[in-house]
Amino acid sequence: MILGEIFRLALGSLAANKLRSALTMLGITVGVLSVIGVMTCITALRSSIETGLNVLGANSFQINKFPAINFSDPWLRFRNRRDITYAQAERFKELMRGTAEVSLTLRRGGRRALYLDRRTNPNVRLIGADENFLNAFRYDVAAGRNLQPDDVALGRAVVILGKDIVEKLFVNEDPLGKHLRIDGQSYTVIGVLESKGTSFGESQDLNAITPITQYLEVYGSAWRSISMNVQAPDQASLAAAQETAIGMMRLVRALDPEESNDFEVFSNESLIEAFNKVAGIVALGSLAISAIALLASGVGVMNIMLVSVTERTKEIGIRKSIGAKKRNILMQFLIEAVVLSLVGGLAGVILGVAGGNAAAQLLNASIVFPWGWAAAGLLVCSAIGIGFGFYPAWKAASLDPIEALRYE
Q1: Does pTM surpass 0.70?
Q2: Among candidates 357, 287, 266, 282, which has minimal Cα distance to 45?
Q3: E strand or H helix at 312, and its extent?
């Protein structure tokens, strides 16, 4: 009963000074919002990246002209590298035969597919690939067949379609054997893929896959660098396959021993590690800003509570004169400080999660709730309330009742 009465008195005091209480909470809200918002966005992006990279095999790595993630080196250095040509990629694929399976890829987004009087939106990705592409990127054929080595060798104008394209162009109609056009080039449909869903916020069912040789014939080979996915037989042989691939790629590129690699090799793990490094730096910066904001907010809580003690000196004297104990006064003012901090922290968590997820959605990441960071934020706010509210509460509890009653 006593604790309930103390709690009621504490809330009543805060309600009586709404503006002052709201301004005090605002500082804590801003501090918590900054860190929770950033960590929500980072958590959502990390989840999206890990999910997106699952489209590749666990035993895979990629070789490309450009790095997947770059925040330090000048981009011009990579742009000035020689392109990985089809002849080089084919030779590399042959050299790796028996060690790992190599898939060659070129991509061109924003295409529109047409069939009779029907057309898709300009969001089709035309992919030039070889016979190993579907296995490398975990696609399954729902109907028809995969690309064959002969299709690639002869540059046949055939295509395998994602489910979304089929549903748009071939309503209640079997697409196999039909002819559609992309950028004025006619293709014969030889296969339809199982639905793949999304990766990095983009539909994987809008792909149109054609032999890479046909792709190069239509669009030319100038200013085109081929990406290669290398898949080792198992996880145990991945490191050895990667070392072999680097050696073979240097041979294909005719690099001297003293020359550095003019290509990039990266795996799922290296991409996640690179992202985590960047995310760690961003998180540290956010924590530093948040710590400064929360420290300032804590000083504000102490200041407001000291003002409250001064304003309510006579009230404290009256309560003590009618039997209120020192610990009751101490508890009341501590509850006021903790409630101020917790309500401000809760508002910061809600706004931070909303803002972080809004930013993540703009980056095509999924919505998440960082339970750990939210709990940590509220615990820190509780600690701020207790730490910065203890001195004013102790000062109030230590007032002499006679002197307090005489205070005007």
Answers
A1: no
A2: 357
A3: none
